[in-house]
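HUMAN: Forgive my ignorance: could you write out one protein's sequence and backbone structure tokens?

ASSISTANT:
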Amino acid sequence: MRHLPFLFLVTLLLLIGCGERGDASPTPFPTTGAATTPVGARPVTLTITELMAAPGLYQDAVVQLTGRLRKQPLVVCDSDLHASPAGWGLAEEGVLALAGGYEEQVRSLLPGDLQMNIEGRWRRWSGLVGCGKQAQQQEVWYVEVSRILSPSPLTQVTLTPGGEIAISAVTAVSTEASLTTPEGVIETPGVDEATPELPDVTVPPQEYPGDGESPTPGGILPTPSLPGGQTPTFGPTPGPGTTMPQATTAATTGTPPAGTVTGTVTITPPAGSPTPTVTGTPPTPTATATGGAPGQVVSKGNLLDELPGDFLVSNLAAGKIDSWELDIFEDEAIRLQVIAPPPADIIVSILLDGEKIVDRQNISPAGSAEVINDPTIPGEGLYEVQVSVNGGAATDYAVAVYTDPEFPVVLPGILISGTPRSAVQQAEMAWHYWFFVGNSGDDIRVRIMPSGNGDPALYLYGPDGVEIDEGWADENEAGEEEIMEITLPATGFFSVGIDEIDGNAFTYDLEFTLQ
């Protein structure tokens, strides 16, 4: 009995010690059950084509998408890196939907072109993207991923006492390393079960930046605008011989090595969506479609000679590649933008005497401009600009080109009726040209509201790229709104031009309705 108090005290001290050690041990961080969908917010199952054809319609909705993994290029900066929230995406039938979340797991553990099914909230984000002072304003539509439904479970992750996330294992989902497609089997690389090392990034500082910074979603977010008047771009375009990164699948033969996690993924598109056809190497952007010889190059003339103003509108035939000549003189740079209405996904190449300066750039999603921003070029000469569409569909498109950075020309995006654009920044001496598709007899209303003492004017341009005489608004004083209302005289790809009367930089909100 005399020893009972002593034993009780020892037992109590042991219990306290065990509790303290338990607090310091790693805590599981499950990826398979994170961020479940709130009650009442049922996910909308969409094809990627449906989503990108009307991105504003599903803003902030919870969506489920199925497609093939496309990892976005990374960048290393000598100065501060401003990253976008989307570091990867899913592709379907040549259309890409960007995604953000699970960056480390996706980049280090999953092979490119893997069939995936994800769930998350569809966001619109606007912010700086690029390196240091070269960073430029960009708009990004992306899925804020809350769950990776397939392949699942993706990884087992531990949270260390220091707060760092360490990938500890991969859970196998099957025993074969292949993608089963209607055309056969594509072998895919295995994933090591041991703790993987994140790959060293050796991309030069002037490459396109990768994505990964957390967004600030919610409500109507700022729309693309750049300090230099350019949108949307990731920085200086790669120089000669640089091939734009595209997803590939490494072929494997024989039996996967021991310790390799493998998996069989069967391609099952959502109901009502076309079934992808994959043969040989996973698809990269190509102009192939019915209605003409696949990839046939069509000469369109000299770009600068054909420009009626700051831009021109042209039509790309199905399965063709449009070729434009572009004269570049000494000390001039190439600054070129191409935009088309979704779902057309533009591809741009630049060549000099057959040498590829920009090789099939396809960075921006459908509905956003492909921007060629001052690539490294050998010097003056007669360059060739090639324009095609991922998947080879026919489409109207607009091309803007300028060589003097003091007078930038910007194609911020596509106007969607009923979807306002907020806090758009227009640089000093810049012009903005928004685009939309309209039919003869449609009534449009455009309202611009400047901040501060901005004094904007509105102009309407027809499908031929020429200003429509009755389409303008410049009646009020600086700091006041301008409204343009007009019935469209034709059918085609129209543009709304915005100018600040005194050439000053300013910020504006824009509303557009079409009926």
User: Anything to note?
Assistant: Residues 285-404 form a domain with the Jelly Rolls fold (CATH 2.60.120.380). The chain is about 5% helix and 40% strand.
